[in-house]
Description:
Elements: H1 2-7, E1 11-12, E2 19-20, E3 26-27, E4 32-33, H2 35-38, H3 53-72, E5 77-80, E6 84-88, E7 93-97, H4 102-105, E8 110-111, E9 115-132, E10 138-158, E11 165-169, E12 175-177, H5 195-226, E13 232-233, E14 240-241
Antiparallel strand pairs: 1-2, 3-4, 5-6, 6-7, 7-8, 9-10, 10-11, 10-12, 13-14
Amino acid sequence: MGLFGNLFEKKYCSVCNGEIGLLGNRKLEDGNLCKNCAAKLSPFFSDRRSSTVAQIQEQLAYREANKQAVAAFHTTRSFGSDTKVLIDEDARKFMVTGARNLIDANPDVIDFSQVTGCDLDIDEDRDEEQRKDAQGNYVSYNPPRYTFRYDFNVIIRVNHPYFDTIRFQLNDTSVETNPDNPLAVMNKPDPQSCQDYREYEAMGREIKEILLNARQTVRDEAKAKSAPRIAMQCPLCGATTTPDEHGCCEYCGGAIAK
Length: 258
């Protein structure tokens, strides 16, 4: 009786106070979360069960503020098939999403400076091809023949308060390669001979290069900006000056050669 009483006892969301349906509860460390509130969390967030109500409320406040960043986002480059990396080179930000309606999806907008690493992981799988014998049974070729399949996964590591890894697949369907010479024993075709393979590999490496180079540029600029300024004589007005962040004299505004 007690078991069924607990099962059918009404539960309420600790965030919005709405009633939670029978199968709609998402457990928190110190409370409950309804599916509607859970759907507003970042898609890359995976620590819900160990999160407190206060932590979830903080994240939902961040997600609400993120809507403004999405509205201001201007895509200058795009990579991927179903899931895409969208880059705003002017604002030095990016997001990863498979949504067509960005406003509704509210994907996390991430600064280049938050990137801590990026890798391309190419997964290889193989399936043995078979034929029917005289009795209609499937049997192996002699020598065996294989079809090779490849998936291209990008792993972006970030310094973010709610997640540290973004992993997604560039290709929507696996890239297949077959032996050029099916009579060769264990003949594995060179995947570079496949145009789709080359295109996805190049795309993944370009994403990695863009994000890592952009991160380094932002960090170099921040380091230069925080570096101590040294007093020198302005060649234009002769004053002893400490150049501003643009390398200009604080008195006459003229550029001082470094």
